[in-house]
Amino acid sequence: MTIDLANQIVTGLLTGLVYSLMALGLSVIFGVVRVVNFAHGEMTALAMYAAWALFTWAELDPLLGLPLIALLLFVLGYVMQRGLIDAFVAKPEHMQFILLVAVAIIMVNGSLLVFGPDAHGIQVPYGFDTYEVGPLLVDKVRLLAATAALCISGLLMLFFRRTMTGKAIRACADNLVGARVIGLNVKRLYAVTFGIGAACVGAAGALLSMLIDVMPSSGPELTMLAFIIVIVGGLGSMGGALLGGILIGVSEVLAGYFLMPSMKGMFSFAILILILILRPQGLMGARK
Amino acid sequence: MSRQAILLGLLLAAFALAPLVAGPYLLSVLVVVMYFAYVGQAWNIMMGFAGQLSLGHTLYVGLGAYTAAALFVHLGVPAVFGLFASVAVAALAGGVVGSLGFRFGVKGVYFALLTIAFAEFTRILFEHIPGLGGPGGLFLPVGDRSGIDLVHLRGHPLMFYYLILAMTAGIFLLCRRLVRSRLGYTWLAVREDQEAAAALGINVFRAKLAAVMLSAGLTALGGVFFAFYYNNLFPNQAFGMNRSIEIILAPIVGGLGTLFGPILGALILTPLGEGITMATEAMGFKAAGIKQLCYGLALLAIVKFLPDGVWPWARARLGLEPGDGDGEDDR
Amino acid sequence: MSAAPLLLVEGLVKNFRGLRAVDGVSFSVGAGEVVALIGPNGAGKTTVFNMIAGVFQPDGGRVELEGASLVGLRPDQVCRAGVGRTFQLVKPFGNISVEENVLIGALRWTHDVGQARRRAREVLDLLGLADKRRQMARGLTLPDRKCLEVARALATGPKLLLLDEVMAGLRPAETDRMVETFRTLNRETGLTIVLIEHVMRAVMALSQRVVVINTGKPVCEGTPDEVVRDPRVLDCYLGQETP
Amino acid sequence: MSGHSSPMVNRRGFLAAGAAGAAVLGLGGRARPLHAAEPLKVGLLLPLSGSLAREGQSCKRGADVTPALLADMGMPVQLMIADTETNIDTARTRAEKLIADGAQVLVGAFDSAHTLAVAQVCEQRGVPLVINIAAAPNITEQGFKTVFRNFPTAPKLVTEGLALMKDVFKTTGTTPTKAVFLHNNDTFGTAMAGAVNKLFPTLDMPFPLVETIAYDGAARDLAVEVGKAKATGADLVLLVPHGDDCIRVIREMVKQRFEPKAVISPGSPGMYEAQFYKTLGKYSDYCMTNLPWINPKTAMSQALLKAFTKAYPDALFEMNIGYTFEAILIAADAAKRAGSTDPKAVLAALPVTSIAEHVMIGGPIVFDAKGQNTNTRSATIQNFGGKPLVVLPSEVAEAKPVFPAPGWQQRG
């Protein structure tokens, strides 16, 4: 019983880390551009399709294809921000929402047209391997994916701390007027930020493609998941997204284990409601 | 008579006479149009007038639908009485969402996410209530489809058409009164600037709560219609996120906070969907998904080029700018 | 002792994150008086206003209107108690007409929209905005917005009007016109006014008494003429320039 | 009534399937329709996009190859295919549109909610609806006069599914000690679970059901669910998935080294689908599903298989295809017997349908007073080498059942 539970918690933790990376993209975008990307899950699904295509047609392991997919999504994000979203940055939230809903509809049905309605999954050769760590069984794919997610998150934090572009982006987030005054090209930085957020999604999608199957209708589900994680951790906070992912991963495991598994989603939404009411800035966000 | 009133009269007459020329197919499309005009208008009270963005509005559709349907199925309560319970339950739910959100200062996008969370929570909850069919669905006995029984809401599709037409006309007139009432002005003030509204003696919390509860209660009536028109309810269809999106498209495309917006939006969107289906079929595109792809592109174009909605744009072109009448400014 | 003053502020204290923004400010305003609250930037004037208006709750001290405490009331309750206010950074209801902006103020005391509309027109006439009543408020110039701010507050029918820098940014002629309006109002309706103002021309012309505060603390109080001659007042303004 | 032109074939006759097949295929020439040249316009409603796109498109593949086959049998049909977009509003308006465009019979609509919405339109317009797939029992409890369903209700699926399990144990001589029941918490899965929990105690099953675990099919990952199932110590897994969720279940079972004697579905889609085989490879083998299946031994199903493989060489030939074909067949047969494509005439002919030779396993297609075909019958199919083979009932079996299944690690 306890070993089973411990196994489950480890699984939840590892899976949560991968979800974190996806949510991190949402958080970065909101933190800087102040636009909630309601097409986030759909973009993740696109990345998963890309991983599947590379795996199927070029026999490229998703872990190796990851940089390429991240780059692809970076370009997509950059172009989306430049060509579409930028005009809506100062518009009210419901306009941004409808815009991104339209984008999501296009993505979902575009992938239906291209890839068909079937679920696509990737079976890497080591897909069924597990490590025995003491009494625990640790799934190899999850461990690899979680490690990769953690590394990428770390790199991203370094990017925002150490590089000029990263610092400039943070300046935009902290003080937009100030950033304009000192001559930063805000439009370009926003596009870069959206691109980086999308690249996170690309990386997360590549990793997720090894864990779950992708269908055109996978998108909305993933969008909701990203929201829950980011709100729980703190919208706009990078550490918060990581924490939120782990928390949601583990709490769903616990809810599934002790309650009815089909109700675990309800549990996540209950956490979301409580956080929104009691601590809307999230666990790691700063109160405005 | 103002030009707006004439336009309104013409529109109502056209819809009332539509069954004379429209076949059952067109009528079924018009029912969908009217349904979305109705719930869009109800949503508009909360967002367009009081400025509170609800992205989980199907919560109230679902609660309204399930309440009246369950009362009918389990206790035999006629729809005409059940709808009061529906309105009460939905208004209460709106009160809970609103008071929690407003009391704790949940604002903007956070409030919108809160409404989604409540809707999704309720969806999963309803999947676990066996008495309401769970995910297996709640079925209403269809009964006689030829007569007209407004008490039980059983009857001919034409009856449902006139019912939803009356509901849409009713909510239009109600909203028209509301925007010119003390409460309506209070909402506008809250929508525009809460701090300034409070400084003018407006109880912001109460005003917002009134908007949510009224909007929720009216939306629930749409849910009752939905339940008795389709005669089956499933949590994922009654409470699903995509239904919430469908509800808010019409008023936003038509023009947020305007009276004609939701109607115009619904009149554009539903036929647009039908039109795209026919056009793609006529052009020989058989692939599934192409219709929604075009729909998405059309939606994108509308929000991009007419960000204030179609009605404010059309109004300017029709010479119906507000301020023509003596203090009877139409929104 | 005579009847309670219209507004009594005593020993008002407010801390922001350990910083004492207002520290022991006291003054009282009799019915029908016009009092100016002046002081250099950051002196805590607006914070005092916000505590009177119920936006902030004071950490210490009393605020009373006609002997009844205003502490603990929400802004809308303070307004309904008879205090109208304007905001330093104007907050017009941008997407509705000028007349409707004012009408909403008038709905404070009447439930009849028609009556509120008539009141709104009177107030707009009084403030010279009548010809712009159909415009959307967001299209107004800054002076007109300031004017609208005052009109809205006036329409609520206040006993006490709190004006937060309504003359700032106005041209001298416009300032004079507005000063004249307030004097008329004060003379004819007995309206009590407390104003925060930097434009000394307006302060001198309008106020019967001036309260000076600096870094949250009271400095002195007197007639306009007394205050401008008070070396402490000069000090606090000059002290700001020379560190 | 002249409608009885199809030969009634009793059960014994049906079991001697091969010969009867030829006879029925020859039937076309015998009945001599009055307006042979005029094809029946069949409006087909399926969720081709939206969340049920996968199932809907699978049905559509079956429909695509149908007109040519029916034409060969002297039953010309013209298909008018409409997409419900997995949306109830669209389902209803599309149904009206199809009728407005001249559809004489409607077939559909896969999803129970949409089917009921369409049924109301059909009832109103006097146009017959032949349901290809939709398991909610309520559909045929509404007293509709125009609705005919050639698909078993959930209780029937489960009753037969559980009975077949006993047959598997009897045939193989092994009986499990206890079972755990995992099911998808969607419309279909819940209907099935309700039936399982209600019927299980009445069917004298040789093993106890220790726990029922409902899961959200959309849930990203099913590790907890499988972990919970493993913790019960059961040696049989009853699984009611609804699509690709079974892939995630099996994958987790392998990873968590949960080794039951078998994974059996009492009647649900998933474990015989192309994606299942492709993704799981050798781990997909030996899983069993008890459900209505295409009878591999009738001439008509062989003809359908041939046409299907030619049109869709990569797609799996499964239940959705068979039932969609049969629904259209039923409509065409009625029109032929009526000698008219007029909806009224077709409607009059439908209640006396009796099609002995068809593609699904089971007795002749006949409808009871409620419009329900009571002769549907489940079979046990088991996966071997990435293909589903019929293992029971033995009359139509293509292979022998293997139980218990070899452990995950023992597979080449």
UniProtKB/TrEMBL annotation, chain A:
Key words, A-Z: Amino-acid transport, Cell membrane, Membrane, Transmembrane, Transmembrane helix, Transport
Compartments reported by the entry: Cell membrane
An example Gene Ontology biological process: amino acid transport
Superkingdom of this protein's organism: Bacteria
Pfam families linked: BPD_transp_2
Cited InterPro entries: ABC_transp_permease, BCAA_transport_permease
Regions that span the bilayer: 12-33, 64-85, 97-116, 141-160, 189-212, 224-250, 257-278
A GO CC term assigned to this protein in UniProt: plasma membrane
Gene Ontology molecular functions: transmembrane transporter activity
Membrane-topology descriptor: Multi-pass membrane protein
Keyword set includes Cell membrane: yes
Entry similarity comment: Belongs to the binding-protein-dependent transport system permease family. LivHM subfamily.
Protein name, per record: Branched chain amino acid ABC transporter permease
Organism in which the protein naturally occurs: Paramagnetospirillum caucaseum
TrEMBL record, chain B:
Main location group: membrane
Keyword Plastid: no
GO cellular component, one term: plasma membrane
Keyword annotations: Cell membrane, Membrane, Transmembrane, Transmembrane helix
Keyword flag Cell membrane: yes
Localisation: Cell membrane
Membrane spanning stretches: 58-77, 83-102, 109-126, 159-179, 209-228, 248-272
Annotated membrane topology: Multi-pass membrane protein
Gene Ontology MF: a single term: branched-chain amino acid transmembrane transporter activity
The name this protein goes by in its record: ABC-type branched-chain amino acid transport system protein
Lineage, uppermost ranks: Bacteria, Pseudomonadati, Pseudomonadota, Alphaproteobacteria, Rhodospirillales
Automatic annotation (TrEMBL), chain C:
Superkingdom per UniProt: Bacteria
Gene Ontology CC: plasma membrane
Pfam (any one): BCA_ABC_TP_C
Domain ABC transporter: 7-240
Chain ranges passing through the membrane: none
InterPro entries (UniProt xref): AAA+_ATPase, ABC_AA/LPS_Transport, ABC_transporter-like_ATP-bd, BCA_ABC_TP_C, P-loop_NTPase
GO molecular function: ATP binding; ATP hydrolysis activity
Leader sequence residues: none
Keywords, comma-separated and alphabetical: ATP-binding, Nucleotide-binding, Transport
Classification via SUPFAM superfamilies: P-loop containing nucleoside triphosphate hydrolases
UniProt-listed PANTHER family: CONSERVED COMPONENT OF ABC TRANSPORTER FOR NATURAL AMINO ACIDS-RELATED, HIGH-AFFINITY BRANCHED-CHAIN AMINO ACID TRANSPORT ATP-BINDING PROTEIN
Protein name, UniProt field: ABC-type branched-chain amino acid transport system, ATPase component protein
UniProtKB/TrEMBL annotation, chain D:
InterPro entries: BCAA_transport, Leu-bd, Peripla_BP_I, TAT_signal
GO process terms (BP): amino acid transport
UniProt cross-references to CDD domains, sorted A to Z: PBP1_ABC_ligand_binding-like (cd06340)
Classification via PROSITE patterns: TAT
Entry keyword set: Amino-acid transport, Signal, Transport
Protein family per UniProt: Belongs to the leucine-binding protein family.
Protein name as it appears in the record: ABC-type branched-chain amino acid transport system protein
Organism: Paramagnetospirillum caucaseum
